[in-house]
Amino acid sequence: TDAEVSTRKKTFTEVQTERLDQAERTVLIKCPSKLNEKKLLQYLSSHGNVRSHFFFENRGINALVEFSEKSSIASLQDAVGIPNAAEHHVVPFKSRLFTFTLKNPVSQPAEETPLHLSPQCHLPVTDLIQKLCLADSISSQMYILLNEYQLTEENIKLRFLACSLVRDFARAYFPDSTVKPFGSSVNTFGKLGCDVDMFLDFHDTRKSPTKMKKGPFEMEFQMKRLPSERLATQRILSVIGDCLDNFGPGCVNVQKILNARCPLVKFSHQPTGFQCDLSVSNSIAIRSSELLYIYGCLDPRVRALVFTVRCWARVHGLTNSAPGTWITNFSLTMMVMFFLQKRSPPIIPTLDQLKELADAKDKHIIGGYDCSFVSDLRKIKPTKNTETLDVLLGEFFEYFGNFDFRRNSINLRKGKEVNKPESSPLYIWNPFEQDLNISKNVNQPQLEKFIAMARESAWILQKEDKTQKIINKEPWGLATLLIPFAKSNSSKTKNRMKGIGSETIRSLLDSLKLNNTTNQQKAVGK
């Protein structure tokens, strides 16, 4: 029942379905600058009940409006005109993106109370640091960071709307298709401003096998056959990419990257302000999103630690938005998960334990890989571990600062270090495609830089005189770790680096020096 679902933690699929449905009843309106909120809602209500709405800034004021009934959108679309094509000719595609302007702006009084605008990007690191200094423990500092960086309810609605608008195009060719977000938009670990990864799904789940068994005939559609699934994917994305490029309102900078390992179309969606990556259904990526969703829901410390470690890594130039030999956010997230599995008692279960709890409906075999794990969060016993985040943060740096990366790899299925199957500097098993290393791109200097920074951070947290720093109004705790470490520390760093392969120490220290200046700018700029 609905009441029963709303009291417990919803499953990943329930949340997805609900949000996709919400997005189908939603429109986006570019508003006039002198807007009276009451008047706008009054007008919209003439087309049907408005269930929720919010305003945000993106090249002017915009409103996302969710109706209770899908039919209200058709009613509104009927009342909307086509732009005046004096200087431009328009592509007559009628979407759910509208521009409202006032007919006689002078007579309309402006809003008495200013509109509440929902933030769509996070606080710059420098402002965050000031906020952190006011907290009373590292644990509360970490929750402040989480609250500033995590996706808001409004931002998530906007992400699902972007997918829903792309789906309107896909449906012109494939009426049954859906477009769903995956990755950071849905796994509870996305930060404000991150890209929207979306995929096109053709699996029509509504057909029950029982329906197909009826009658005396085996029946199937006649469909175009191609030599490989990859070619089919490339053709579909190529056409939809062209479609968005030629006809999609607000879709700009469309790039088709069809020869990548996973073919995709990249584009900027101006109305929502998102950078989007569209690919074709990738079931394993969805399973990874759901696995992280489960871990993120099990204990609040999980997300607080992940967001903190990722912010720390970005400030120190350990991660980078450009692809390269850096550790990725996904790898870092998996390292945090592994660390939490290794606590005593463990804070989150291993993937094998989640698989043991799975029932028949949780069974997923994808391309020969067993991707089954429990989806109902109630079946997972809560942890008995009561360690504070103050402890966990220091222990995380301590653990990986002294991890034997030369010999061991990180395996989340078993929750223990296993011998490396091959010689990549950092080896993290892909939780589902067991023969893949998700951190294959990371080179030795980058790994050693990570180890050095982890040791430095563990050392700072142990040595720090918190009370003195608070009295002196100096940054302390997490705030200290989010300021790029000064060059004066490099001699200390050298001492703490004993025991790390000396052949790359020289290049490492040089890269630290280089990076510190650029990171300060990058961290502030992001």
CATH architecture of the domain at 3-104 and 151-203 and 229-283: 2-Layer Sandwich
Kindly provide the name of the CATH class of the domain at 3-104 and 151-203 and 229-283.
Alpha Beta
> Structural class given helices, strands, pairing?
alpha+beta
Number of helices: 19
What is the CATH superfamily classification of the domain at 3-104 and 151-203 and 229-283? Beta Polymerase, domain 2
How many β-strand stretches?
Answer: 13
How confident is the prediction overall: mean pLDDT?
89
Record the strand order, biggest sheet: 5-6-9-8-7
Give helix % range.
40-55%
> Strand content of the residues, in percent?
5-15%
pLDDT < 50 stretches: 499-504, 513-526
What's the Cα radius of gyration?
Answer: 25 Å
- How would you sum up the global shape? globular
CATH topology of the domain at 3-104 and 151-203 and 229-283: Beta Polymerase, domain 2
Ends apart, CA distance between termini: 44 Å
GO molecular function, one term: metal ion binding
Protein name: PAPD1 protein
Domain Poly(A) RNA polymerase mitochondrial-like central palm: 138-296
Keywords: Magnesium, Metal-binding, Transferase
